Amino acid sequence: MTPRDFGLYIHVPFCGAICSYCHFVRTAQHDLDLRTRWVEGARREMDLWLEHCPSLTSGTRQLATAYLGGGTPSQLEPDLMTRLITGTVDRLAHGPDLELTAEANPESLNSEKVKAWRAAGINRISLGVQSLDRGVLDLLGRACDPATARRGLGLATEGFARVSADWIIGPGLVQKNLLAELSEAVDLGVTHFSLYILEVHEGTALARDVHDGRLALPPDSHTEALYLAAGEHLEQLGIAQYEVANFALPGHESRHNRAYWQGRPWLALGPGAHGAWGRRRHANLAGISDWLNAVEQGQLPVGEIDPLDRAARRLEKAILALRTREGLPLAWIPQGTFELDRGEREGLWDLLKGKLVLTRKGFLRIDSLEERLVQKL
User: Fold this and answer.
1) Residue 185 in 3-state DSSP?
2) Is the CB of residue 143 less than 8 Å from the CB of residue 152?
3) Mean residue pLDDT across the chain
4) How high is the pLDDT of residue 3?
5) Which of 52, 147, 177, 233 keeps 20 to 30 A from 137, CA to CA?
6) What is the chain's Cα-based Rg?
7) pLDDT surpassing 80 at residue 149
8) CA distance 104 to 150
9) What's the pTM?
């Protein structure tokens, strides 16, 4: 990637069912008419960006990565997905090595969609597996059983050379079962994993279940032990950790996500999508109807704009560096922010070539470390 390259994120807000923990902009109440209207809206939003941002058509910038997230992009019919890509991604100048990722859930992926996606230019798939254990899937409110999840993994790995799979570390997990699941996925051909520790967000069904005592979360010590064991197991299988939650076979890291952590610009389309361009961050209107009404009236559907000053940009750059295995340059850390020698003795980080590089144990303390940077920078 060159300094002039950029990314594109498209938020597809449709789901077959709402998972108990999900707090993103999404709906399970949709039909073909709404999905079609949304695709046309995304195409119109791209038109508006091309009108408002001359550098996109000047030939001086090139699209390097695009990511279709959600929600569940695999809820779109094959022809709608093709129309979405031709009206957005294909409108932007890009080279033959464009990384184009689409998220899918196992229950809404089929061979027809795999074929159509490949024909449309999608060359990387991110599958929301979360678990291969029926009890864990039920606790998470997933509309998927283990057999369907395995079928989805098979379709993904047979159809794409680059496959990422999400796993959630939360209640109901047994360590030996989790490690066996990860091994099974590697054997099938998964080359990238995202391991997420379950978070409870207000307003979700999960938060209500926890608050009302219907679900007890495991102690932090248990969750942390699972994270450490899973990370070590993936390393032994040749899947190296390169960010807090992300692990990949060498050469299969997500270029799109790495661009985020490197502070590169990206456009964002769709309701609730967040983008970064120049020295500002922006968030689209979160309501699907509000977003549709804006783009159909010829207005960019931006709801919030955050112009970052120099201090904010410096803080963001430091926090993003801390999340990766490349590490945070010591020169960026104000004196007294961290007890460097103590943290190294405790195994939280290594001090290598002028950088503070978090260990896997250190990644478990990322929130408190980021708070220290906020206080000092």
Assistant:
1) helix
2) no
3) 95
4) 61
5) 233
6) 21
7) yes
8) 13
9) 0.96
